[in-house]
Amino acid sequence: MKRISEAEMGGKQAETSNPRDWGSSIWCLLVLVIGALVVTAAALTILKYLHFSKNNEAHPINKKYADALELALQFFDVQKSGKLVDNRIPWRGDSGLQDGSEENLDLSKGMYDAGDAIKFGFPMAFTATVLSWSILEYGDQMNAVKQLGYAYNSLRWITDYLINSHPSENVLYFQVGDPGLDHKCWERPETMTERRPVTQVNTSFPGTEVAAETAAALASASLVFKENDPDYSSSLLTHARQLFTFADTYRASYSISIPQVQGFYNSTGYGDELLWAASWLYHATRDDSYLRYVTELNGQRFANMEITTWFSWDDKLAGTQVLLSRIIFFGAKDMPTVENLDLQMYRKTAELVMCGLLPDSPTATSRRTDGGLIWITEWNPLQHAVASAFLAVLYSDYMLTSQTETLYCSGNSYKPDDLRNFAISQADYVLGENAMKMSYLVGYGSRYPLYVHHRGSSIPVNADTSCQDGFKWLYSDDPNPNIAVGALVGGPSLNDSYSDTRDNVKQSEPSTYNSALLVGLLSGLISTSSVVKSYT
Ligand SMILES: *[C@@H]1O[C@H](CO)[C@@H](O)[C@H](O)[C@H]1NC(C)=O
Ligand SMILES: *[C@@H]1O[C@H](CO)[C@@H](O)[C@H](O)[C@H]1NC(C)=O
Ligand SMILES: *[C@@H]1O[C@H](CO)[C@@H](O)[C@H](O)[C@H]1NC(C)=O
């Protein structure tokens, strides 16, 4: 991919400036010094014109975020279902090998959602979309710290599954496992024996949000794999287009069609997913019909312009606003006026979101802890802090790369660095700068949660317990025997406190989408960065 080769070049350039090669005579040295001055002057002149546009210099790496990224990516290996390949987690093994077989499908891959062993398609697809976005913007940063391969691998482990879960145009299997059966057990995925039913949406029982989120995941992933694996990429795109048409033609929430999903990942609506999916399809195809979809056709209806929201597995509006702002930042010159005006509204709303995040903006949200963490819900509070910080670092980099110097919030002006500093504040809180003086990223630092709510992590590999008697491991006083490396737990209370107990599900359960959002945030912070102007 273009961005990888840029990073590789940066690395090579750094190597060739090895001082040992610098000749022995003083003349040689003088010539080199003068040469260097000329080159520097020339470079500065070029930079004056290019300003913040991307160059091939190797940026200094921030070790803290690089180390954290290396851990965060491992959580996807912790969560993998299926026949494992190059497994990095010693306490994980093959599992879920028969998943999907009752419908003659291979749904063995994919990832377990959180501390249990259900594959919930709605959040899993969101995990993939966020991973794709992270790779597209910050793949060169990941590559610079040798993590890009792991990110590709994790993404593909999910997209392989999603492709198999879409066996015909208007059928999508969105769940493997029954939460009722699964939650009656406390067992390792490697030893589970209960039935693993699969559940679908179809034309009679549609599920717009889950089909659209899956379309977003596959469309964004098609961009990720475009250069390295064009056949796979075009297969992803075909599924994405079909799923979007299915989602849009048969409009209904899966929570309404199939009420039993309301207990887990109940959806509050599908308009946001339709816009999000169409935005990704537009980026993946440059087909104007997807642009018209999010602007003149549905902008008014679904976009909630000028109202700020929190980016999450359930609500993609803020992410859509940032993603569509990208077009204004980098490529709206030839855009027809109508689309342009609507896109400006998305960008305006994205600015309002950013203004809400900046802690000293006149419109700063009050929804944070005394320690400065964005805090929206008791359940899994870190998801919103990390998601907000990810969007902020993206927006900051869009501003930098497009030479947009100022963000105005009710008359006050802010710089890209202000957004970046907000993002850093959230990342640093997660990594240990907080009242508890602990890291919420498992494996990072000297103090992190030891009683993570996670079946596989809490049960010794050689335990002879099964479904029911396994609960003794949930209630055991001992710390987890297996480290759930890279898990980002739910996080602290509003008063910045955290209770490290295994049955404190709201706080101590990790999830794959938490880790995906963290991967995006950390990748953006590894070095002073700018994004590429175009994905294509
Ligand atoms: C359509 O989906 C519903 C809900 O998952 C399921 O009960 C039904 O059997 C499906 N229809 C067909 C024809 O498979
Ligand atoms: C699930 O969401 C729907 C709206 O999509 C709502 O009507 C319903 O009350 C919610 N159910 C639960 C259990 O929260
Ligand atoms: C902080 O909040 C939690 C949850 O609401 C509560 O259990 C705990 O006692 C509070 N701690 C302090 C120090 O106020």
Name its key features.
536 residues, mainly alpha, Glycosyltransferase, three-stranded antiparallel β-sheet, two-stranded antiparallel ribbon, 5 strands, 3% strand, binds 2-acetamido-2-deoxy-beta-D-glucopyranose, EC 3.2.1.4
How large is the radius of gyration?
24 Å
Determine the structural class based on helices, strands and strand pairing. Answer: mainly alpha
**Averaged pLDDT:** 89
Helix/strand order: HHHEHHEHEHHHHHHHHHEEHHHHH
Shape: globular
Query: In the CATH hierarchy, what is the class?
Result: Mainly Alpha
**CATH-scheme architecture:** Alpha/alpha barrel
Q: Please describe the biggest sheet, giving its number of strands, its sense, and whether it closes into a barrel.
A: 3 strands, antiparallel
CATH fold-level assignment:
Glycosyltransferase
Bound molecules: 2-acetamido-2-deoxy-beta-D-glucopyranose
The domain tally reads: 1
| Uncertain stretches of 5 or more adjacent residues | 1-31, 38-56
Describe the 3D structure.
The protein is mainly alpha-helical and 536 residues long. It has one domain (64-525): Glycosyltransferase (Alpha/alpha barrel). The chain is 50% helix and 3% strand. A hairpin with a 2-residue loop joins strand 4 and strand 5. Residues 1-31 and 38-56 have low confidence and may be disordered. One 2-acetamido-2-deoxy-beta-D-glucopyranose binds at residues 493, 495, 497.
Give a quick rundown of the structure.
With 536 residues, this protein is mostly helical.
Task: Describe the secondary structure blueprint for this structure.
Blueprint: H1 2-16, H2 26-50, H3 63-78, E1 119-120, H4 121-144, H5 148-164, E2 172-176, H6 179-182, E3 198-201, H7 208-224, H8 230-249, H9 254-257, H10 271-285, H11 288-297, H12 299-302, H13 317-331, H14 337-357, H15 382-401, E4 407-409, E5 412-414, H16 416-430, H17 455-458, H18 471-474, H19 505-508, H20 512-525
Antiparallel strand pairs: 1-2, 2-3, 4-5
The structure holds 2-acetamido-2-deoxy-beta-D-glucopyranose (3 copies).
Residues 199-200, 202, 204-205, 258 line the site of one 2-acetamido-2-deoxy-beta-D-glucopyranose.
